[in-house]
Amino acid sequence: MSGLFQLAPPEASAHAAQVDHIFLGFLALTVLLTAPVFVLLIYYAAKYRQGRPADRTHAPSRGPLIETSWAVIPFLLAIGFFVWGTFLFFQGSRAPLDALTINVVGKQWMWKFEHPGGQREIDALHVPTGRPVRLVMTSQDVIHSLYLPALRLKQDVLPGRYTSLWFNADRPGVYAIRCAEFCGFDHSVMGGRFIVMRPEAYARWLAQAGTDGSLADQGFKLFRAHGCSGCHSDQSTRRAPALAGLYGRATPLEDGRIVTADDQYLRDSILYPARDVAAGYAPIMPTFAGQLSEAEVLRLVAYLKSLGPKEPAQ
Amino acid sequence: MTAEPALQTPEEKVSYLAAGHSVRSWLLTTDHKRIAILYLISITGFFFIAGIAAALIRLDLLTPQGDLLTNEGYDRAFTLHGIVMVWFFLIPSIPNTFGNFLIPLMIGAKDVAFPRLNLLSWYIYVLGGLFTVYVLIVGGVDTGWTFYTPLSTMFANGHVIAVAIAVFIVGFSSILTGLNFIVTIHKLRAPGMTWGRLPLFIWSHYATSLILVLATPVLAVTLVLLASERLFHLGIFDPALGGDPLLFQHLFWFYSHPAVYIMILPAMGVISELVSAAAHKRVFGYWFIACASLAIAAVGFLVWGHHMFVAGQSIYASAIFSFLSLVVAVPSAIKVYNWTATLYKGDIRIDPPLLFAMAFIGLFTIGGLTGLMLALLAIDVHVHDTYFVVAHFHYIMVGGAVSAFFGALHFWWPKITGRMYSLIWGRISAGLIFFGFNLTFFPQFILGYLGMPRRYHVYPPQFQTLNVLSSAGASLLAAAYVLPFFYLVYALRNGAPAGPNPWNAAGLEWTTPSPPPKHNFETTPEVDRPAYDYPLAKRSADG
For A215-234+241-306, which CATH superfamily applies? Predict the structure, then answer.
């Protein structure tokens, strides 16, 4: 299809349609506010051209009332759009709790995705329709930006930090994934395919994609292989705190602060353990920075989350 | 015809241009008018260097594969284009040439407050420029003009440090010029030239100077931090070293967003002069426009976060920055409507300066309103870092600031050189620039909304048609920008003597001969009327 007659990418979610609506609405406001300027500039230039007879008497040189009105009225109209745009944005920033979480790691110059079942893909992302999907993203090197034009969404992907975005795609199809933040030589080819499938098709794809076990299982293997279980055991909490039920809990630290044990906290505690030491423990844990890739850390976090808020009796 | 140069007019024989013809008399001058010419020549050189980089970019984007340059070469071309255009053309463009030339003339002073500092500022600019030329010769830099970390500090392999030094140095030129203008406007106004009688060009340069002095040091600090991390691995921005990459973005945009107003405020000052002079009428709503300039300078410091809506900053911060970005548009809207109202019941001469001013108003308005779209959070998430943004800021900086620069050039050329150029060619080039500009950049709005990210060397084939249109527009625009060079230079020798006031305009600069004598005025003028006090004699004869 020729790019000339296509003015917007396909809409693969209700959010995308809403963004197009606010865009068209503001476009209409733009025309409303600029048309008088463009028309009058030309009209006045023609009508009051030097040498032409025209009534030039009583030319006003100020008019506080009209000036205030053309300052305030467009502003108030714009404020309406501000409320609308901010509402849509806030809606898009809080993922529902039941969202399917997919991990994303960006690196020069590829996108890696890991599904909860452990299925991995590179430069392609399969998601089901009709279900909220949350992408938890980080970068192995520089800043990238995951851009899904069909969803009208993008989010920068930073090294050393988890950012996320969520969506509910409702139109099956194959769309584009692009990198929107300049990230070096091959920035323009750092992209891939975004495949939205019906839930049955997604389930079939998951089944045939193959896996070395779920992310949590793979995380547990790493947990043992790197010797974490030597100190962090459920039997003894003498040297290190037990990790069952930690995720999402308010955790007191040695220096008196209290932090929520979220993904970012777990990641930082693995890579920079001396930064936030749990209350009652000495900072004896070695750093794993340089030993674990971001993808491996994400698997460990998935394992810790699987130990998640459980009944104390268990 | 003989090969003899055109006879010098009596005014030229006693003008600042006649005060010495040696290279030394130019390079060691402290005359603000000569320094303005030094700037005009040097920024024109950099405009062409950055323009050539833009030409390479547009040529390369004719095809989706990008077969003219390598990926690396392309990255270096757009980085150079941005750095040179922003710091070596746009920021000094109007203030350091027309501001330098006109501020003393407009307020009835003999020179700026610190003439030697003024010359030093030019030498600092040249030194920064030499570093840039060095970087160009040794192979360039590939970070984008925004230098985002940790790409620029730990990953890019171009000459980041050298170019950071160049930008660091040229910043001091900005600071000294801003300081000089502030003091000049405060201390050197002629008797009777009260604040309320200042031309709006002066008000906008005053506001610009405040930003130059307050914002530029932040850029210097940021570049020093960047260099410390790149050279000494001091962990400031790279998380692998314990730094925070968003810190860089906050610091960078804290300077670079106000820098947009450094580019556009002087342009607005020019437009107020051009519109009023063409209409032979007082600017509508003088105080609203004057205060709008100050408001833009103040609120402009509070909107930097709108560059970071998808960067990972707090969503509540984003909401506040979104709101403030709508607020900062209000003073600009006032100006656009007031300029339009100025034409109402005017006595309008449709000469090149007015055509450039009209081009400015049209293009700036589109640039401003698309800027409001970008300020709306939900829209920005989609079009951030796409060609929509590229189109938006080119409408402001090229459609706006560069059109105003050309408008100023066509308006004050007779004053600066004493000669009139061909008005017909002036009108043609204004029309060509307007048309070529729109053909170049309007398709980029659509490309952006369709999802083409900026800084893409290779792009999906469905974007080719719009890219070809844009490149076609760019070649037209390039020709239109070169055109004035010929007829303006031709007019230097062959143009008719302009006389002191060829446009029949108000303003002290038009009361002195063209070109002005070395010390601007024979006797210090006494001001007893407001700016733009057009005589109504002719009008009453019509009516």
Answer: Cytochrome c-like domain (1.10.760.10)
